[in-house]
Specification:
By secondary structure, the protein is of the alpha+beta class. It contains six helices and 13 strands.
């Protein structure tokens, strides 16, 4: 998973390096369309998908605004998987769900390319490390153990007596506004009572189970595949219609007669 896109050679170079070390590897792309330098976006995408891969999968994740700086490269074991990434918070949500059992810094030169580009560590440091791990190298061989690592400050929904306050975390390619409001928090506040949903002051008239339950062209709220509340527009883009993006406030409140 990277923010490299597919127009340039960058993702292909990483694949080539990995296959040169571990030719039997099966390479599967999560996405290369993370917005440039969007570490939070990459953390969200990785957290949404990693658990659907087979146990033992090695995840190579490079969204790295600090490439070439003193920021560390790390490899970690968590939840039966292995992750290779820059130490910039990309693994925050994975670690929240599956606390890591081992984390090391990537310092051992035997498991990197001889010359490491200051602008392309994905090819020269991270891809080789992931490939050596896939080939059976023990995590501890890649460098010294770590007891601390960078974590992002991902906003949590705020629960009050009759209101749940959250924010939009990401906008998917359909224009759905995916929030940080999880189903457990939602159920805790609403308890099956009548509610009202607002996105940055815009009333969302319907809470539905599926997109097809809302009238074409109408706005609705529902829980998507990542089990987070999202604001959607049937047959259109909620993001474009409401002119909202990451950080927009979303409020779920009990209606007065339900409080």
């Amino acid at each position: 998973m990277t923010d490299f896109g597919t127009r340039d050679h960058y993702a292909g170079a990483m694949r080539g390096v990995a296959l040169g070390i571990c030719p039997d590897a099966t390479l599967a792309d999560i996405t290369h369309d993370i917005a440039p330098q969007d570490v939070l976006g990459s953390a969200l995408e990785l957290a949404a998908v990693f658990k659907y891969f087979p146990q033992g999968t090695v995840f190579l994740c490079v969204v790295d605004p600090g490439v070439g700086t003193a920021r560390r490269g790390i490899a970690a074991e968590a939840g039966g998987y292995t992750f290779v990434a820059p130490d910039n918070g990309l693994l925050t949500l994975v670690f929240k769900e599956c606390p890591p059992t081992r984390v090391v810094e990537l310092t051992e030169p035997r498991y990197a390319r001889p010359i490491i580009s200051r602008t392309f560590e994905g090819r020269d440091r991270f891809a080789p490390a992931a490939a050596w791990l896939a080939a059976g190298t023990d995590l501890g061989a890649l460098g010294p153990p770590l007891t601390d690592w960078q974590l992002l400050d991902v906003p949590e929904p705020r629960v009050e007596a009759s209101q749940l306050s959250g924010v939009v975390l990401r906008v998917d390619r359909f224009g759905n506004l995916v929030t940080n409001i999880d189903r457990r928090s939602f159920d805790h506040v609403t308890g099956g009572k009548r509610i009202a949903v607002e996105a940055a002051g815009h009333r969302v008239p319907n809470v539905v189970e599926t997109y097809g339950d809302a009238k074409p062209g109408s706005m609705c709220a529902l829980f998507g595949s990542s089990d987070r509340l999202e604001i959607a527009m049937t047959g259109g883009s909620a993001a474009e219609c409401l002119r909202l993006t990451r950080g927009a406030p979303v409020i779920v409140r009990l209606k007065p007669d339900a409080a």
